[in-house]
Amino acid sequence: MSASYTVAVAGATGAVGREMLATLEVRDFPASKVVALASARSIGTSLPFRGGELTVRELTEDSFHGVDIALFSAGGGTSERFAPHAVRSGCVVVDNSSAWRMDDRCPLVVPEVNAHALGKHKGIIANPNCSTIQMVVVLSPLHKAASIRRVVVSTYQAVSGTGQKAVAELDNQVRQIFNMAEPEVKVYPHRIAFNCLPQIDVFLENDYTKEEMKMVLETVKIMEDEKIKITATTVRVPVFYGHSESVNVEFERRLSANDARSLLREAKGVVVLDNPAEKIYPMPITAAGEDAVFVGRIRVDESQPNTLNMWVVADNVRKGAALNTVQIAEALVRENLVRVPDPTAFLN
Ligand code: NAP
Ligand code: 12T
Question: Which secondary structure element, helix H or strand E, spans residue 217, and what is its range?
């Protein structure tokens, strides 16, 4: 039998953390022990796992003694503060927050696209933003075939991306509106029920949101090609699970819609659902609860040469977060990379 590991999930009580536990279980990750960590608020909470229960402990600097792999999903500030201590304890961190993604020391990995980047890890591996992950899974095989010059993407993002509070907020607002009460607005800057918000995360100095710039910068890092130009508009929509994206891709060379469909049918982690005559295309309700990235509406952009339009949908909590993080951990195990070369690498 192969090796077995002690695994910690930091943020185990959250929307993503719970999905991480479920994913470790259904994929039969080689964990001999799983430790559930969250804030002091959750001490003693029981979480279901493998037919039994895990009792949540408080995440502290000392939580990682004897832990081999930690999956972090407890916010950027928490990762920034605690991941270096995990590494100091000899634990490899796969981090789902934005804290380490653009750090040169940290590989930013989508296993279908750049698993090779794991080879040089120094203890912290970053999981990309949900919107970036589903887009690069589709772009990568097309880039290999015809070289991408420019991408214009608009997103339609589900509230579950923001966590459990936001799922409750949409649910409550819908009930309040149907009961002719004033909807309560707490999580988002405006009402999300029956509305669309062209703001995800904070605004930056260039008038883009941080979510938009994550898509730009992370895509170039993952695809390892600074020549790819990309611009994004990210929008929150009143959907519970499943992010959708309208993606316009200009290539160096001609690629027909049929060529793109064939390439994507062969691509790992992708399902092509593209039959307009039968009204078949991906939707959030198609992707929710599924592992794949779905693509459809593939068609030629008739306004300029060598350009295609497509529609990409995935479960943001699965492939966008928990599943990709667990897949990174699986790749580390497979490649014998569960080790910390320098425990002090992130302490400064
Ligand atoms: P959530 O439902 O709000 O859960 C937050 C989790 O973090 C809870 O387990 C919470 O514990 C824990 N936490 C918060 N502050 C903490 C602290 N100071 N110390 C220890 N634990 C703390 O949010 P979520 O949707 O699961 O997302 C969690 C994080 O994952 C996000 O903040 C984000 O960084 C990241 N994320 C990334 C993507 C992506 O694009 N890849 C997508 C979604 C989320 P308590 O229950 O004890 O409060
Ligand atoms: N603000 O991990 O609100 O960078 O949907 C993921 C999702 C940040 C992240 C969201 C966010 C991230 C959201």
Answer: helix 210-223
